[in-house]
Amino acid sequence: MNYLGVGFSPGTVLAYHSTNLKLFDKRIKIAELVLRFMILGLRVVAAVLIRTDSQVKVFFSFEKEGKFTDVKALVFLVVANGLAAGYSLIQGLRCVVSLVRGSVLFNKPLV
């Protein structure tokens, strides 16, 4: 019984019973794998672009080159993108192993 005083029987819960459940599960895993590696690629590209970018400003006869290391926020952004890309790589590899083995790496009680 829930807080409204209206209860439900476990027998009335909707469930999805189909023979294509394994195919559906495989499609979900493939979609997750594609999204994870897209995220990985975008994060690596962002970190590389920020890392390699520079700007030259001429002030009278002096030239000052600005790099990402001049701004602490950009240093943090490069490090955070690198860490997030590493996490995406680990999760992508977990998805690959899950597709190959046909099961997840962790069991439900552990999760």
Automatic annotation (TrEMBL):
Indicate whether NAD appears among the record's keywords: no
Q: Which residues cross the membrane?
A: 33-51, 71-90
Write out the GO cellular component annotations.
plasma membrane
Where in or outside the cell?
Answer: Cell membrane
What keywords are annotated for this sequence in UniProt? Cell membrane, Membrane, Transmembrane, Transmembrane helix
**Pfam families for the chain:** CASP_dom
Using the UniProt record, give the first listed, main subcellular location: membrane
Q: Which residues form the Casparian strip membrane protein domain?
A: 26-108
Membrane topology type: Multi-pass membrane protein
> What InterPro entries does the record point to?
CASP/CASPL, CASP_dom
Quaternary assembly: Homodimer and heterodimers.
Family affiliation? Belongs to the Casparian strip membrane proteins (CASP) family.
Protein name listed in UniProt? CASP-like protein
Its lineage opens with:
Eukaryota, Viridiplantae, Streptophyta, Embryophyta, Tracheophyta
